[in-house]
Each structure stands twice: as C-alpha cells, then as structure tokens.
Amino acid sequence: MRLFNKKKIYLFDGSKGFMLQKYGLQKGELAESYNITHPDTVMRIYKEYCDAGSDIIQTNTLCSNRLVLKRHGLEELHDKINSQGIELAKQAIDGRNILIAASIGPIGELLQPFGPLTFEYAYSLYKDQLYACRNADVINFETFTDLKEMRIAYLANRETVNLPVICNMTFEKNNMTLMGHSPKVCAGILKKMGADVVGVNCSNGPDKMGDILKDIALFEDFVCVKPNAGVPSFVDGIAHYDQGKIEFCGYSDNLLDFNVGIIGGCCGTTPEYIKAMNYIKDKDRSITVPSDKKRYIFCQYGYVDVDDSYETVDFAVSDGDVYDNIDAAYDINEEPCDAFNIFYSGNNAQFLFELINQIQDILKKPFIFHIDDKVCLDSALRAYCGIAGIRGFELCKYGAVKI
C-alpha cells in the first residue's frame, strides 16, 4: 500500500470546524478563509492535534473549491487558501513524523440529473483544488454523500497529482448515503477502482458505526473511521455533542474489530479526545473480517456475482438522440432482471458518455457493456458509476470485469 504501514494503527485528528468555532469562527464565516485571515488560529489547532498524538492531521481545506469560494467572494484566493492550509500544517508539524492529509469535501451542489452540476465541471473543480493541495502527503476525501461525486473526485486525483487517497463516505441513520448508496457498494466500487483506503466519517457516533464498517471491511483490510462525538442536539441552529471523551474511546475501541487501520474523530471531537485515544496506537492491528473475493459487477444500488447465475435484460442504444434513449430506458426499467446488457455499435463516444451518465439512474442494475468501438467503451466506463461487466475487449479500466 502506498504510504501506510498496514501493520500499525494510525491515529487521525478530530474536528476542525468545532475547534474554529471555539476560537472565534462566526456563523456565516467560511472556515477555510481563516487560513489567510487568522493563520495563527489555524496553526494553533494543527499544533494541538499534533501535540495530542495524531499520526495524521487534515488541513483546513474541506470546502475551499472554486464554487464555494465564489459564493463568499474569495474565488481569486483559491490557490492561496488551499496551499496555505498545507503550509501551515507543515509548520505545525515542525519536523515530527506526522502525515498531512489535504481535506477535500463535496462541492455543495447535486450532480445531474438531480442538480445542475455536470461531470466535467465537478472534475475541473476537483482538479484545481487537488493541484493547489499537491504538497500534502495524502488526500482525504471526506463527508461525501454521493458516490458519483466521490468517484469523480477520485478520478481527478488519479489523473492529476495522483497522491495516495482516503475515500470517506458519510451515511445516514439508515446506513445508506443521502443518495441511496450502501456501504458495501461504496467500498466495493472504490476499492476495485484502486482507492488506497476506504472508510467512513461523520455519519454517527462510534456506537452506531459497526454495521457500516462490517460491510466496508469486506473489501478494505485497512479501514479509516472518524465518528462524531455522538448524536448532536441543536440549540439556535448550533450543534452540541454530549458524548464525552471516555465514552467515545470506549466505543471506538470496539471498532478495531472491523479491519481498522486509521481512526480518529469528526464533529464534536477535540484534541482531548485524540489524546485519550493514544492507547489505541499500542494495540496489535488485526484483520478480522475476511475479504470477499467474489467477482462482482456493481451499479450504485446493487451488485451481481458474475460467476453465479443471473438474469439479464437487453438495452440496445439507438445512435443520435439521448432523450429518445432515455424514454426507451424508462420503458424497460421495471422489467425483472439482475443486470442490463447495454448494446452499442456506433462510434459517438461523447453521445454515449452523456447517455450512460443519465440512464444509470433509471436502470438501477449493474451494466454489462457490449460495445464495438474501444474509444466508446472507454467513454461508457468513465461515465458509469459502478464496476461494469464488459465483453469483446481486454479493457479493464475503471475496475471493469471481463465476462
């Protein structure tokens, strides 16, 4: 594995936003702007986590993409805010053996077809922020509620700075992401695409994380977990967390049963929590959840073992009009099957990209591509938020499975 020693347990840090509020961040202020306006405050928080025993500290850059910064009139400071977040961390570490994780979160708008954000625009936003954060040791993608967006961010990293990545999804009380993705699907897709580490942050307190982690651990033998300090209560719109550090640590200890390699805290946690967790670093790390070795193909909402029996329905793509094909997809989306065979014999790669990007949210079963043109197949695989089955080519990019 790139960067991490899988024999040890790494201690991550805790919340940045909670600490910034403690030290003066006001409602409506952008936390990431403090990298420039209050660098001493950001440095103080970094140092407190370093002194508390963190092996990894994340930067104050979670929301500093160009779109969010534009809303705050700070777009021209994009590169400076992000690079300063990294530089302040380097100064705080002061030569200690501590890794710097560039924190990068969701853009803040929904992707098409549910919102205005296009694949290409999201990719460009992540590409810009990743390049500005290129001097970090690792990228920590965190608090993602849409697997499609996480996948775009992951591709932007792999195709630009190519730093080691931690991919942390966030789940609701029903243990699904806001967009309806399960922990098993998220972990399976991200690991088969090549993510260095897959895990979960925020979501819940450590006492509620077990069911999420046991599914992630089926595909990840070095899980990252950063729970909240319990479930928040809200007073005047401000979250308050009542799970103390002793209770938090008591639950966190149990999470090591799920292949955990990196553990820390999220909302409501402070350097005191991390200091109390230092004993975890002395524990022997074990892989207690065995890897699921089956040959799955995935969509966002499920999976199929291609070495077992399964039923398919055919969908023949008609060249030319995206919306005619979308109408045809609606006509068959209720037909009972385990997977869809997608047939395309044309050579319009951009048309196929746009179509796959949309019909995957209509035909909610894994896709098996039967595509004659190699460039078009590559385009379809790039658009597809899943692990597709393919026939006809030895093109196993994006984790695709040859059937």
How are the SSEs placed, and which strands pair?
Layout: E1 10-11, H1 17-22, H2 34-37, H3 39-51, E2 56-58, H4 66-71, H5 78-93, E3 99-104, H6 119-132, E4 138-144, H7 147-158, E5 165-169, H8 183-193, E6 197-202, H9 210-216, E7 223-227, E8 233-235, E9 238-240, H10 245-254, E10 260-263, H11 271-276, E11 296-299, E12 302-305, E13 312-316, H12 322-332, E14 339-344, H13 349-359, E15 367-371, H14 374-383, E16 389-391, E17 401-402
Parallel strand pairs: 1-10, 2-3, 3-4, 4-5, 5-6, 6-7, 7-10, 13-14, 14-15, 15-16, 16-17
Antiparallel strand pairs: 8-9, 11-12
Helix pairs in contact: 3-5, 6-7, 8-9, 12-13, 13-14
Provide structural commentary.
- The radius of gyration is 22 Å and the shape is globular.
- The model has no long low-confidence stretch (mean pLDDT 95).
- Helices cover 34% and strands 18% of the residues.
- It is α/β, with parallel strands linked by helices and 403 residues long.
